[in-house]
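Memo to structure team: turn this sequence into structure tokens by end of day. - J.P.
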Amino acid sequence: MSSSEQCMSRKIDATRVYFELTTILPSPQAPSGMFFQHNTALQPPYSILVDTNFLSHTVHHKLPLMSTMMDTLYASCTPIITDCVMAELEKLGPKYRIALQIARDEKFERLKCDHKGTYADDCIVDRVVKQRVYLVATNDRDLKRRIRKVPGVPIMSVAKGKYVIERLPDAPEK
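Reply from structure team:
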């Protein structure tokens, strides 16, 4: 290879590297309600997706659901339960009949599920990823781990006989 050919190949390599470094990579579209990690779409009255585990812990600690939620959030709230969570509660049998009675209350808003299967965790994560207007109430470790990966979604759980909020801006520290 002659020196002019080597020089030409270096120029081609240099321009290739330059274009690889300067090309703009497509980034996923961020939801319009997100301001950095702060979700501006969360406003009172809060919509709270309730999980089976959260209901069973509420019953175990003998906490009144609505009043404790309102005391924790300092705002009105709407508990929401999906068909998958209701199916999960019904499958658990008589041991969870009090939690099932609470879930059947008229104060709960019901959401219809349009997917196959009745795995409640997938259903909740799916809804939260599509629409980030929900708080998620759960004590399930795996579900919490999956929801923490979604930016801007607060988590409510039962701990030490009271409700606790994770990642809600301006949340009261109790």
